[in-house]
Amino acid sequence: MFERFTKSARAVVTGAVEHAERADADTVDESHLLLSLLDRQGSRASFALAALGADRRREEIVRELAEARRRGGLSQADTEALAGLGIDVEEIVARVEQAHGAGVLAGAGTARGRRGFGSWSGHRPFTREAKGTLVSALRIATARGDRIIGDEHLLLALTTRPGVVAEVLADRGVTRAALDRVLP
Length: 184
Known about the structure:
Blueprint: H1 7-22, H2 30-39, H3 44-51, H4 58-70, H5 76-84, H6 89-100, H7 128-143, H8 151-160, H9 164-170, H10 176-182
Helix pairs in contact: 1-2, 1-8, 2-8, 3-8, 4-9, 7-8
């Protein structure tokens, strides 16, 4: 499938790996794909993000993704649903961090010493969700009649998959419907 990616889409994928490495994350997830998309300039996805104003809100997006990571990957909607059941996620996170250290639920570097053969290579696998995003990008490209997968298809895929990244984007007006309006 990777051979069908444009140069820009390939750059997003390799940029996501670099974001994961800088964060000392054991895996590449959807948030790394989004951060890499936000790094791009002069591409279809960067045009769409700029048209919707998300490019100017990068720091805000980074902060919200970090906060979700701190909560163990729970979205704000998950946190609110749990609050409705009387579960205070912030209190739980604070207690866990008090007992085990700040950011422990973020998972950065936790499995570094436990991985088996191949861990020495520095290879970071993609999470199931990130792989799903790549597959969704292929499906979106095909449904739009495109023979190749561009970074705009990756962005569209991130908005259609439930979770933290889609929520963060939607909170800033970057939805599938909004992208369909600004992407030709």
